[in-house]
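Re-running the complex after MR caught last week's input typo. The corrected sequence lines follow. Everything else is unchanged.
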Amino acid sequence: MKSVFLKEIRGFFSSLIAYIVIVVFLIITGLLTWVLKNNMFDAGYSNLDTLFIIAPWVFVFLISAITMRSFSDEKKAGTLEILITKPLTDFQIVVGKYLAGLTLITLALIPTLLYFYTIYELGDPVGNIDIGATWGSYLGLLWLGSIYVSIGLFSSSLTDNSIVAFILSMFLCVTMYISFDLISSLSFFSGIDYYVQWAGINSHYQSISRGVLDTRDLVYFISTTLMFLWLTKTRLESRKW
Amino acid sequence: MLFSRNIIVSVKVINLKKVFGEQIAVNAINFEIAEGQIVGFLGPNGAGKSTTMKMLTGFLPPTSGESWVAGFNIDKSPMDVKRNIGYLPEHNPLYTDLYVKEYLLFCASIFKLDKKESRVKEMIDRVGLTPEYKKKIGQLSKGYRQRVGLAQALIHDPKVLILDEPTSGLDPNQIGEIRTVIKEFGQNKTVILSTHIMQEVQALCDKVIIINKGSIVANDNVENLQHLAQNKILIRLELSKSINESILRNISGVNNITIIGKNTYELECTNDIRETLFFSVAQSGNAILNMQLEQQSLEEIFKKLTTKKTL
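Corrected-run output:
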């Protein structure tokens, strides 16, 4: 698992994907938080809400982009055959790739701690920021990223065309993130709208963003990630059917 | 069970069958390969060579049948099998983004080798990658890529080496170099290589398994197979001036004469009559400039065996 993880990380950095993802993420979130209209100064509140509203959408693109090649390219190039005929289990291959993707988005998030520090210092009085909610939001963002990475891997395992994988992954990420909120307001779901929302990422992301660590949210994040990883592994095994 | 005739059997296949949809790719084949042998898998494209290799490496499960590699059953202990084989798939897939050394270190780390660095250095040296090892794999020429593929398959010193068309698409020099590497490493390993180049089998292999349409049509030593075809002998003869054909025809043992060039003949004979030929020609006042015994090549045996209609 460790060897697959390291190989993926090396692949990200030697093909420039890693640098591009980190830089693009920081440029978009940086501009929206500090420079463009409705930035943090216009709002006048000492919080990082802009970042946490924007990031899930930026992640849809970036995580789909970093995971789209993970299996589709290996299938196309035939390197999957090399991986599978090495003494690695399918599970080790999937989890190694998942951890590499998660590490990359963590690396993209770390520099935004500078935004956190800046707002902490800008607060009046200094430190007038809801620290619990901010850490909660970071944690929520990581878990959201974790689900996106597993969705991206699954999409990539379905096809040997990385563009198809990219589009499918974006679609599934948006679906999981927001669409349950949107359809819950349909009259068809009246009465059970809460449970419909509950199936989407957003309700849990909002909940953890308040700084409350609810085990139900954690169970949701972990089980959704595992479900997509399991689907990916099953898809890999399907060559045997 | 894996011992027979005091030879250790390294690869054993019983009734191995693979069906893709309606198509039977490999049809219940059986064979054994003794430890230390170099075996050539020969067959036209689509004969089932690659599919058989993919089943031996655990990439594809067979539809039915069983196989053992290095003493382990592929179905029951796939990890042990995978630890003991080195596999070079067809078209030699590689991670073109990685550096040669990075890739080999990755392979070494999968096998949890001690002294990874020194092992990688040793492999780079032994397969002849030293001048190129600082490059990305994508920047290498085809011959060097093939060496990377071989290094990858050999890094953990496997007992069984499975090479799917290791020399296809290379130029003649590179083919020679790759064969040297295979021969050098194959000395104390069991090697299965697939090819459709006959000279390769003659140059490298102890044994040949010819596959056609999913079935084994021949499984024998290279020499035995050559003997199979030796009910006729061809002798090429180049003379200084033209000769009356009846002189040649009167020599006993000559069945047929074909003129293949200026003063050049090809004689089809029942046995090796070169000595008589020499004196008969000399007596007629002619001189032999060139005389050559042509062994019927595996190529013809291959053609014969693989174009026959299978029942």
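None of the earlier attempt is carried over here. The two ends of chain A are 25 Å apart (CA to CA). Residues 154 and 231 of chain A are 7 Å apart (CA to CA).
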